[in-house]
Amino acid sequence: MLAARPVRFEYPDDFEVVWSRRNPEIACVANAVSLSMPYVEPLVVRATRDALAALGDTALAGRARAYAAQEANHLGQHRRLNERITARHRTARLLERVLRSTYAGLERQRLSSRTGLAAGFETVAFAAARWVDPRADRLFAGADPVPAGLFLWHLAEEAEHRGVAYDVHRAAGGTHRSYLAGLIVAFVLLGGFTLLASLALLAAAGRWWRPVAWWRLASWSLSFLFHGGGLIAVSALASHHPDDFDDPARLSVWLDDYDAERRTLAPWPAHRARR
Length: 275
Hints:
This protein is an all-alpha fold. 68% of the residues lie in helices and 0% in strands. The chain has one domain (24-257).
């Protein structure tokens, strides 16, 4: 059963947008991803809610509403982080204009295209969650726990609801072909923009001429293309369903420690793993 877990991430007045001194490149890449979220998430939420009429009074409709609520929570928290990023970087404000124009065009597509795109975004997000899960300690070592927690919470919930958008797409009359088209567009948009914005933010942070920065970006990109790309390729098969994949071992268990009364999660690292 999906559950909305509203977590509010509080940033101090002296918050540094390059929030990892030990590994500043991960902050630039994560911030680049965050810039896309206020445009990706509304598209996903609206497509899902527009498809509810086709679902009727079913269990899937209930899951779809919970999924949309999770995504709306992600949207709000990324906006709060992005306000701090754009306040410091003029480049980030210019990138937001490109995003706004790009996603405005996608919002005008027919419903089956939008639900296919939503399912495609969820597949890419799940691939990211699976890739980050075994690497989280190394990637976020020494990082500010607030933005690090935001990204890990987001990825953990992406893994939890990975099959809902796909089920909504098919139940609302979407075809495998439109899902495949959405998957390709989602991968190109997220991957291409994340790379572009990461480079811009690295330059703004003064990391452009650091060989270690290029080494890290190259090694992460190749690793994700190999591991995450394989998962995405399998997801493109007509016989495959997103729930056929196993949960990320640590992120999934970490959500069990959510405190609904305080609206907090236990500090990472997760202390248990699935066996």
